[in-house]
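User: I'll paste a sequence; please echo it back and then give the predicted structure.

Assistant: Echoing your sequence first, then the prediction.
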Amino acid sequence: MEPSAGRLKALQSEVERLTHYLTALPPDAWNHPSACARWQVADVVAHLAAQALYNVDRLSRGLHGDTTPPEGWLPVSTHDEEAFAEGMAQRAIAERIRLGDQLLTTFIVGNDALHQLLTGLAPQDWEALCYHPAGLVTVRTMVDMRLTELAMHGWDIRSQLDPIAHLAPESFSALLGTIPRAVRRAFRPDPSRAHPIRYRFCVTAPITTTTDIVLSREGARVEPAGEAIADVLFRCATETYVLIVFGRCPLEGAMAAGKVVVEGDQALASVFGQSFKGG
């Protein structure tokens, strides 16, 4: 199977999984808090519904060579992470109120439209550039971002209603691929960091990988684990790693529960969690 076909299959599987779950959700559960701060379950679904339609627009424009901001969106050069996150939160709540009892229908329609567009792509289309507020991205990256979004926000909904909810293993590859973006959002510049701190995550089960996250004055970046000596080494499963980096599982809690094994400077291990500002 071609990598692009595998991604589309995983994306559609995640869509169907979440749609089935939401269709069976009792009415009162839609007002239940999600794992996203300030968002009810309905707000999360409103965000996902709106993003599906935004993605159809951005992809369609990008496939025709248009990478300019759609109406109402700012140029990439003016992107501010804090303002972007706040605006996204407010738009989701506004969409939830506007859509009312059409929320689930809009979610389904938006996903269907996106699926129809993606299944019609030619091989060369996957590298076309599209607008994104934080910088131009390829169609391939946008698909990974959408899969990540559905998987993570699906967990945000299920985890508050089912304490043993898990991420779908089929989504792990895309989630790992979008971690650099998550890391840039999670850590802010800090002039007080006199020297970079290198954290190495040794991840196993079901995907084995070793990755460094480096905190510096400028913020944070992801690097392949190379010859550099890590200040702290974390060992954990794939799901735990993803939930930590996307801000869903506090590092200290994962360490206390035995989900993360730490080697190296314990004080610096705590700095990682204390420096985390949000996924």
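The chain is about 50% helix and 15% strand. The first helix runs from residue 3 to 23.
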